[in-house]
Design a protein that fits this description.
Distance between the termini: 31 Å
Helix content: 40-55%
Bound molecules: flavin-adenine dinucleotide
Structural class: alpha/beta
CATH class: Alpha Beta
Shape: globular
Strand content: 5-15%
CATH architecture: Alpha-Beta Barrel
Largest sheet: 9 strands, parallel
Strand order of the largest sheet: 9-8-7-4-3-2-1-11-10
Length: about 325
């Protein structure tokens, strides 16, 4: 199975990222959001892990909900920072046992104040090593089955093992902690060599950042699809927070427009229009789909897809 599957509502594959609720009271609201997102037949909905203090238990709970209650593929983010080899192996087993077959393998960030030393990193030093470990644990836990060989009559059989899809992160403007300019491309090549089948990018604010990065990655030998990660940003405070977390450059036009707009409705319109323009531009440049950071709010990402002409107005679900 390929992670990127054309959904039926739109010919452009779309996908969404949500994060696990931080309190028990927020589950109902998140599940309502997931229902609304599922209504546009996304290729997958991904659930963050560990980010912002969300633990693996809550993440798996949300993933299991998506698996049981929708027809959408749940994609589990996993981070390995600070974990021993045995802990990471046990975590992967737990997710596989729950029926999860798609992963986003991440190194993760060291806790604030911790260095990049061996103790802070744990046994696995990079996302590429986690890709290999997921693949290995999956192989150990899934027996081979025998299937007929397509197009070959008779009793000939081929041995197959159910596989997992493993996505990885990519950084169009480099990683904030890169030690040399092309390190993020080298890291992506290593993740591909380890078995990753899809890359999802960090958010970016200019289509050229993504398109130039894809061109550089392709000429370096990256062949896997690189899905652009886009976040509609509808307030100056959200923009500041995102810049702080990602280390991206402040997008001048968006920052000024959000700052001078006096109403919340007006700011929402600006953020949606900006993100929709970005979606159109990257698709025109050959992007294989659109991955939207939903921030657990269906309204803004669905409005972005409508504004970009990716889902029809009749698919309005809010
Ligand atoms: P890697 O590719 O292994 O490393 C990334 C970069 O870090 C390398 O390119 C290199 O420049 C640098 N680097 C690697 N090792 C070292 C070292 N020893 N010293 C200095 N620099 C080094 N985080 C979460 O906690 N939970 C999530 O759910 C989550 N989801 C994400 C989803 C997406 C799409 C993206 C883009 C990021 C997400 N993150 C999440 C953030 C991610 O964990 C951080 O960006 C992390 O710093 C890098 O992870 P990686 O998997 O790309 O690591």
């Amino acid at each position: 199975m390929s992670i990127i599957q054309p959904p039926s509502v739109t010919t452009v594959p779309v996908s969404f990222e949500v994060y696990p609720p931080r309190s028990d009271a927020s589950y109902a609201a998140l599940y309502e959001t997931i229902d609304r997102l599922a209504a546009v037949d996304p290729a997958f909905i991904s659930v963050t892990y560990g980010a912002g203090g969300s633990g693996g238990g809550r993440s798996l709970e949300v993933l299991t909900h998506i698996l049981r209650e929708t027809r959408v593929e749940p994609l589990a983010h996993l981070t390995c920072i600070g974990s021993s080899y045995a802990e990471a192996t046990a975590l992967i087993r737990e997710f596989l046992d729950a029926g999860i077959r798609s992963f986003l393998a991440l190194r993760g960030d060291p806790p604030v104040g911790a260095g990049e030393d061996a103790a802070a990193l744990g046994d696995l030093e990079s996302a590429a090593q986690l890709v290999q470990l997921i693949d290995r644990v999956q192989a150990e836990t899934s027996p081979y089955t025998e299937e007929p060989i397509p197009g070959v009559p008779g009793a000939a059989r081929v041995e197959r093992r159910p596989s997992v899809d493993i996505a990885v992160a990519a950084f169009p403007n480099g990683h904030p902690r890169s030690r040399y300019p092309a390190e993020h491309i080298d890291a992506l090549l290593a993740k591909q060599a380890a078995g990753a089948t899809l890359a999802i990018t960090q958010l970016f604010f200019h289509a050229d950042d993504y398109l130039a990065f894809v061109a550089r990655a392709r000429s370096a030998g990256v062949e896997i699809p690189i899905l652009p990660g886009i976040m509609p940003i509808t307030s100056p405070s959200r923009l500041r927070r995102v810049i702080e977390l990602t280390g991206e450059q402040v997008p001048g036009t968006l920052a000024v427009d959000l700052d001078v707009e006096p109403t919340a409705d007006g700011r929402r319109e600006i953020g949606v229009r900006y993100a929709a323009d970005l979606c159109r531009a990257v698709l025109a440049g050959g992007a294989p789909g659109i991955h939207l950071y939903a921030f657990n709010n269906h309204d803004t990402v669905l409005a972005t897809l409508r504004e970009a002409g990716i889902i029809p107005p009749t698919e309005e679900t809010s």
